[in-house]
Specification:
single chain; 620 residues; alpha/beta; Purple Acid Phosphatase, chain A, domain 2; 2 domains; 6-stranded mixed sheet; 19% strand; globular; binds the ligand Nc1ccn([C@@H]2O[C@H](COP(=O)(O)O)[C@@H](O)[C@H]2O)c(=O)n1; hydrolase activity
Length: 620
Amino acid sequence: AAVQLPFELGPLQQPDSSSPVANPYRQLPWGDVNIISTTDTHGWLMGHQRQEAGFSGDWGDVYSFVARMKDEARRRGVDLLLVDSGDRVDGNGLVDGEPAGHVKGWTAMSYFAEMPYDVITTGNHELYKYPVAVATYNKLAKHYGERYVTSNVNLTLNDQRGKQRTVSLGNKYRKFKTEQGRTVTAFGPLFDFKAHAAGIDVQAPHEMVKEPWFLDAIAEEPSFFLLVGHMSIRKEPDSEWSTIVKAIREVHPHTPITVFGGHHHIRDCVREDSNSMSLAAGRYMETVGWMSIKGIDSADRSNLEFHRRYLDQNRNTYKYHAGDDFDTKKGQSITKSLTQTAKDFNLTLQFGVAPQSYYLYRHPHTSDKSILKLLTDKVLPLLVTRPDRPYPSLTILNSGSIRFDIFKGPFTRNDQWIILPFTNSFEYIPSVPRSVAAKLLPYLNLVGEHHLASLTSTTTTTSSDDEPLPQLSIAHPHAQAASVELLYRRRLAEEYAASSSTSTGEEKLTPGYVTADKCSELGDDTLHRPIPAVWQPTFVSTAFPPPPPSTNASSSSSSSSEEEEDKIDIVFFDFIQPDILSALNALQKTKTFTEGDVSLFVGSLTANTLMQSYAEREWS
Ligand SMILES: Nc1ccn([C@@H]2O[C@H](COP(=O)(O)O)[C@@H](O)[C@H]2O)c(=O)n1
């Protein structure tokens, strides 16, 4: 069993300027209206506490920064708003390690509620589990009131007498006046997410824009539109920002439109037209987004100026922009309280000491430094086994279920949630012919993971260069998957390839994001050399052919015929059950595989306990 060691998480506050954290290199571009944005925080409110000083600020630091920048905005006589585009659970012990008695993210919602958001919306991760969605409604949505804006998500609630009523998860839109008297019309759309729990309903954005309430809401012209939604700002198949902007443009051809997206975890900026800007502020509390608009009060709409920045989330950044003494009492108390919560959640509990770092993006999945290789070569063959089965097993992982790197050193309960946050169980389909099993991984990687969204959107499928993606010739319902992790990795790899071939003298810079977005000038607030990133497959598996089982199972036939040896058990996370079933049915026609062929493989392990077991056995 794991032992509680006197081990503390690293300092929540980043060391002073003597630390190797780089400073921003220029002032922020202030406008008449300025907007700070967060997205895809996934529970990282304590910041990054190992090796990544560039992202080591915490929620208390962000709070103080926002408070100081709001003061500065008042001093300048301009507006400063704060928005969040969702995805607050799945990915960190602070949300997923919530002690029994509350749903995941319950405590973290109180930290979120401290932040003076003007518009805050939901992501898809709040909607995978019905109790999490209900807690979001009861706690966060109720706390923020009209500022919690979800334009296309309904929730069906059961009252104490078992009567059902369907409510909008949040306010469908918000009309408000800024401190400087500007009028704002805000919406909070979610992409057409279909993998949500029962009791939740998401309307496709292209249907939402036809609703009478939407048309009424956009009829009156505000000073600017504020769209804050959980949806990639690129024209990916699950993104419909263009549809929403177009609907507004039909009524207001020139009114400024600001878009704050998310979901794809990248720093990004695009322009739908010259009077709008769309920004995505990365992921995991690595980035704070900034957008400013100048000339917003002028009747002449040809003079509008939009700027954007991606701030590294650390105390040097905040000191540079808000002053050395940017801390506030409330910010400091949030920091202190987070440290206590980490202790209360037992997140410092050490399961072992990782002998080296294992990365998700930096090395090919075949490298000994890859977390995917660690899992498929060592962890799964050791732990996900069934001695009672007569056949060898092939375990397939969707790499999207693995969310972060393992750093050399203590491996804690918090790290376990960071790496594998989902409670996915290991299922299997027994006795699949070896010839079919052999084709499974290549097939799955060809068609990709099943879509989270229905792809009835009116936008076209494009690559990050806005070129059409090559269509797969294979006719398959899942073809052209564009999973978040895949897009994130593709973008990192592209940026790394582009910048490492052109930059000089970059070795003096610290590693970090070097963003190649679609807006003019450089967006990164701090200069870096890019972190290496290479392409990774969507699915990985244990070795094929699998070694024969070290089985206790009495072979059903003592002669152990050729036929029996030719079978393999296919093991996988329940999340990708649809992918496995449809792949097996595409690869052979002798049998139709259905849910009825699937059983639990190991009951004692789930995705989120896998690394604990491994660290306790191999790293302690
Ligand atoms: N139970 C789950 C849920 C999700 N995944 C993986 O996460 C991806 C979606 O997460 P985003 O942050 O990108 O929205 C999804 O594509 C899966 O790969 C999972 O493995 N298990």
